[in-house]
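On clarity, I found the account of how folds are encoded harder to follow than it need be. For illustration, here is how one protein appears when written out as sequence plus structure tokens:

:::
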Amino acid sequence: MARSDEQPSPLAARGTTVAGKKGAMLMNRIAPGISELYVANADGSNPRRLLGNESTFDYHAQWSPDGEWIVFTSERAGDGQSDLYRVRPDGTDLQPIATSPAVEDAGAISPNGSLVAFAGTLGNYKSNIWIQNLETGALWNVTNSTEVAGDYTLPDGHFRPAWSPDGEWLVFTSDRNTPWRGHNNISGWEHTQELSIYAIRPDGTGFRRVSNRTGYCQGSPKFSPDGSRIVFYELPMELTYYARVAESAFYDVNTAIVSVDFATGSDRQEHASGDSGGIKLFPQYVDNQTIGYLVKSLLTNATYPGSINYTAAQPEGSVSAAYRNASLVGYHRSPAWSPDGRHMVYEHVEWDPVRPVNKPLYSWSKDWEYRFTDVFPQMSAQGKVVYTSQQTVNSSLVTMNADGTGLNDIFDGSRFPVRVNSSNTNGTFQGSWRGDGEVLAVGLGDWFEYRYANPGWVYLVAANGSWARSMTNGSTNAGFPTISPDGRWLVWREFAYSASEDPIPLGLRRMDLTTGEVVALSSSWDNTPMFAPDGSNRIVFTRRTSWPISGPLDDNYDVMTMAVDGSDVKQLTTLACNDAHAVWTHEGKIAWATGMFGFQDEATIYDNNQQPYPFIMQMEADGSNWTVLTQSRWEDTMPLYIPNELLASA
């Protein structure tokens, strides 16, 4: 079932408040639109939906060692809430296993069928390896001991557990004690991931590192049938960014399928080359002679979105006859094979359809109903909402009533083809309301990595779309503006652009709209400013605090505030993980996206997801009282509260 096929909330009707809550919180999420589980023969024949009409948004399935169960992750409790379930291979006897508000994912049932290991964020929001007794419900964390746990201020996640055939060991991946790293395309904002493979006994003893290659990511380990070896995928750490984004460099990424001796970590064998063949993931011994794996392509590649393939498990061997020349092409992800190797379960994943604006999401708050919106939503004092239609349409500026009705495209960047290229990373970004609700400020141009070589403009736009006026001349990349509630001040961020890729941040600029005078408020790498709605003229913004850049570790961004004259600058976050996309709430608090809890899974397995780790947080204006608002495995950002009184007046 597609996410957008779910019935819209009856609470989204015109003029209707959210019963029992304070109102709605809009937020953006980047995640696929469809994910359904299929079971098929190992050659791809006879596919069927595992859960039939009970299918929702389901993924990451694994067979139990006796072939009697399939354990999987499901968001049937709500969009974004990852829980563990199990079901018979014929789709019957569906049972919940772990259904807390935390992330519970990547389940694996033990050889004796009594335990399930999984990756979960219970307790401290970081991914740990948990074990639950399927008979008694007893639950314990095996990776939070002093011996195992890494530095909490660093990524420190533990993922993808797999049992040894005798049930004595678990192997898993972890980025414990690795630094926060940006990728090497200058901006450094999105993190890369270095994973090693570890082993531990189910009682938390015997912890040791099995395999590591400095500067590389090793992922998704599985045991050989006799328990003597583990197989995994491997790629350079830097490429864990390009392997998960829809950019041309995606097609330059190759991973290797590698195995090592479990006891020693030695006797490295490469079963599929890391020099060619694409992004090979989820390797598994199908039998003693054969390893199955996925080759991932872009979900937008309708001809070849992915394929399931087989390679020899033995150095001088060949693939078993049943799997020779088998290659199943389709929208496949996360394949897993049955114990006898005759069947497999996999996800059918598609990016479209994108969630509709105002679609209900899982709410981690008792006070607010969470709903989806496109990017950079902001609300006027009169209860109108503006956002950029980056995911849903064409990155134009759209307004709507607080309840989601009355959609109106008021400023379409495609009207300026000379100024904006066709990528959805360009267009009209970050609309900002004047206090009277009659005028908005917005940026038009090429953003993100394109800002270094292309211009951007700041515009004022009539709220009804009747006129638009350029306020900057295109000699720089000016964008992401904010307009003060009284309409006097216009503030934006500015970068110099040239043919080179050397970024030249020019800081924040302020225009006095009564005189046209422009002054510099800062000269740092600053972005996404926003005026407080209370008329105090306090500005919240994001600053790259690791500027100038000397290497990929200089990638830290923090949340700041300043006065309208550029004075009284305060740094509200100080972590090395990246904190950004800060906005003011209607109550004068600050909400933002943080990377402090690290990746929730192996970065390489994601699709079209630059930052699959932010949680939405909230704090007081002075930086105190941090509160977690979301905890999904997806990229969640850009919240906007809409109180019931504004919903009622829509």
